Amino acid sequence: MRPEILFPLFAPVTSLKGVGPRVAPLLQRLAGSVIRDVVFLKPHSLVRRIPTQISAAIDGQVITLEVIIDSHQPGRSRAQPLRMKVSDATGFITLVFFGRFGDQIEQRHPVGARRIISGKIEDEKYGRQMVHPDYMIAPDKRDQIPELEAVYPATEGLPARRVRTFALEALARAPELPEWQDAAWLARERFPTWREALERLHHIETEGDLSPLSPHYRRLAYDELLAQQLAMAQRKAERRKDPSARIMASAIAARIQADLPFTFTGAQSRALAEVRSDLSAGERMSRLLQGDVGSGKTVVAMCAMADVAASGGQSALMAPTEILARQHFETISGPLNDHGVAVILLTGRDRGAARAEKLQALASGAAKVAVGTHALFQDDVAFQQLRLAVVDEQHRFGVSERQRLQTKGNAVHLLAMSATPIPRTLELTMYGDLDVSRIDEKPPGRTPVATRAAPLTRIAEVESRLRDAVAGGAQAFWICPLVSESELIDLKAAETRAEDLKQSIGPSVGLIHGKMAPAAKDAVMSEFADGKLSVLVATTVVEVGVNVPNATIMVIEQAERFGLAQLHQLRGRVGRGRQESACVLLYDPPLSQTAQKRLDILRRTDDGFLIAETDLELRGGGDALGLKQSGFPDYIFADVLGPHRDLIAAAGDDARLIVNRDPELKSERGKALRVLQELFDWKAGLGLRDAG
User: Rounded to whole angstroms, how far apart are CA atoms 166 and 18?
Assistant: First the structure.
């Protein structure tokens, strides 16, 4: 239950003065539904109002003047603005007002009246003017115009100044809260109290106060990170309380590994050893297996599933799409079946007697491994003894979906897999409640992808070479540029490119885009995987993990629009067989310095982890790594891709220490930390805003 001290912050925004039925939806869209959301709304810039005279005003500057109203010049029609000529001892300017309230303006500000006005001065062809002054008041009210004014986000129908009024009223309702930070850490970082930090956030004195590196901003960012890391540490500790079956390394897995046509890399062996250590510990495993495309994550999971089968248990491997599920099934079913471990594939396509037969095999324990999609956690699917859940591309599933699969058994171990390399500094933000294993070596024998960059002016040459390669039996991906402003523009660009390539290469050109239904996407991908299509044009990032060994060419149009990690993921679609493969990065010159560095690093290395780290260094904040679509937390203050990266590890260490010393949060600091978690909605049992 929410602490009473937070009640004022969780009152609805409609309790703010002036937030009625018309304004409420606008403010909710901009900030949120409760007072806390409004008080957490950050100003994005600062206006410094300079008192001056008309003759000294500089074009583009925000100024404050004391003037006399000389005349009104109403528009000839309603579409034309009202113009008001005003002057001081040094000159005159024109005030411009658009809208239908000219009569009211004239009444409130008659000719001969003295007024204080403030706004941006502009030098136009009609002379010096100020469009819609921010302030226009009588001289005895001049103290109502702040010299420094924070500028807030706005939306249509709700201007920034009105938002500022709501934010300051929300701030006035924010109570003093008990201190949840460690005293030594507070002193070291010179952090203000939580309430002082909020005050400084809204009452800006210098441009430096807007900086995410300012002490008050860092304090709020650290509070948020601590709340999240504490929730993750609590969840991790809670899982470890669950006793789970001890699963030991098995002779079956050893024989399967010995029969493989390749030897495990050192990284694969380390990862398998870490997984086995968890499985044999008697506590529920929650581990992430992170590895680049083609690094061999699936065979590590297969050996763990063999261990589970040898102990009498069952495993389930869940993939986000049917084509990926079938690919996993083809990879593991042969080796497992050869050693007496029965594997079934369960997808949404299974119907009637065939589905019933598979469900019976799972319920009776005859099938030890199930591979499938969301179909695995449907109500009628029952396992005899599910002990291990393997979730591929785990960020593509919601928390509740993963939990539904795990509830098919008792204290089920979780092994999540991801092919999206995450920089070490960010691992805690996404996977703070998981132990992480990294497979950072490529299997021997894989042919590196030759990567070349070329200007778009050479696109005809690229098409010609592609036509020759396709004639020789090759297959290729052609990725169209991302136009974030409009998915329809994306689609049009891809359709046009697909038509051009059909004219040049022939009818064996397919198209896949974000507007297609999942089943239709799967159908096109299957045609491409089966060799029925020679070229696949795509607007969206092609499914991570889709394996088409015959695809040897990747063309990425306007590569400078993609993040470095995204380019690496796309390049990973080719070079999966023994044939030489190539990736062509078509760019629109001239390249920025950052874009040039991105393309250079891609040409030099295929190490996904190094590329992810470099991407973070080159691009910093924003969504350089494409993580916002990968289960990345939705922070309010913390910018962990940019200036607050150094706070992540500190928050993680603090959270683990708190859980070890005070697991029930019963101490004075523990009680304050409960308030913090409620304040940010980061709670251990909460499915929402969940990154892990």
Answer: 8
Tens digits of residue pLDDT in 619-652: 654 444 455 545 567 899 999 888 999 999 999 9
SS (H, E, C) 592-616: CHHHHHHHHHHHHCCCHHHHHHHHH
Give CA–CA dist 320/295, Å, rounded. Answer: 19
Element of type H or E holding 435: strand 435-439
Q: Is 292 exposed, middle or buried (0-12, 13-18, 19+ CB in 10 A)?
A: buried
Q: How confident is the model at residue 686 (pLDDT cuts 50, 70, 90)?
A: very low
DSSP one-letter string for 40-68: TPPP-EEEE-EE--GGG--TT-EEEEEEE
Contacts of residue 664, Cβ cutoff 8 Å, sequence gap at least 6:
670
End-to-end C-alpha distance for the chain, whole angstroms? 24
How far is the C-alpha of 637 from the C-alpha of 265, rounded, in Å? 41
Contact 88, 51 (CB under 8 A): no
Mean of pLDDT over the chain: 89
DSSP state, residue 456: G
Return phi, psi of residue 69, to 5°: -80, 120
Q: Are 302 and 336 in contact (CB under 8 A)?
A: yes
Cis peptide before 590 (omega within 30 of 0): yes
Q: What is the pLDDT of residues 89-137, one digit of tens each?
A: 999 999 999 876 667 888 899 999 999 999 999 988 778 999 989 899 9
User: 10 Å Cβ neighbour count for 517?
Assistant: 8
Q: Measured on CA atoms in the order 328, 262, 275, 629, is the torsion positive or negative? A: negative
Pairing status of strand 314-318 against strand 369-372: parallel
Q: Taking the complete model, does pTM exceed 0.85, yes or no?
A: no
Burial (CB count within 10 angstroms: exposed 0-12, middle 13-18, buried 19+), residue 176 = exposed
673 torsion bin: left (phi>0), alpha (psi -120 to 50), beta (else): alpha
Q: Report the 10 Å Cβ neighbour count for 465.
A: 15
What's the sign of the alpha-carbon dihedral 503, 505, 510, 512? negative
- How far is Cα 478 from Cα 556, in angstroms, rounded to an integer? 6
Among 92, 53, 44, 96, smallest CA distance to 74 is for: 96
Cis peptide bond upstream of 51, omega within 30: no
Distance in angstroms (rounded) separating the CA atoms of residues 434 and 489: 39
**Bridge pairing between strands 50-51 and 62-73:** parallel
Using an 8 Å Cβ cutoff, are 55 and 183 in contact? no
Separation between Cα atoms, residue 463 and residue 497, nearest integer Å: 11
Q: Which residue has 């079938």 as its token pair?
A: 326
Q: Give the span between the Cα atoms of 422 and 404, in whole angstroms.
A: 26
201, 353, 544 from 207: Cα distances, Å = 11, 70, 43
Q: How far apart are CA 286 and CA 389, in angstroms?
A: 10
**DSSP result, 174-220:** PPP----S-HHHHHHHT---HHHHHHHHHS--SGGGGSTTSHHHHHH
* Helices within 432-514 (DSSP H only): 459-471, 487-505
| Best CA proximity match to 313, nearest among 369, 232, 380 | 369
**Can you tell me the distance from the alpha carbon of 453 to that of 240, in angstroms, rounded to the nearest whole number?**
49
Give 485's pLDDT tier (boundaries 50, 70, 90).
very low
**Phi and psi dihedrals of 24, rounded to 5?**
-55, -50
Measured in degrees and rounded to the nearest 5, phi and psi for residue 289 equal -105, 105
Domains of the chain, earliest start first: 1-46+154-175 (1.10.150), 50-145 (2.40.50.140), 251-439 (3.40.50.300), 449-605 (3.40.50.300)
299: left (phi over 0), alpha (psi -120 to 50) or beta: alpha
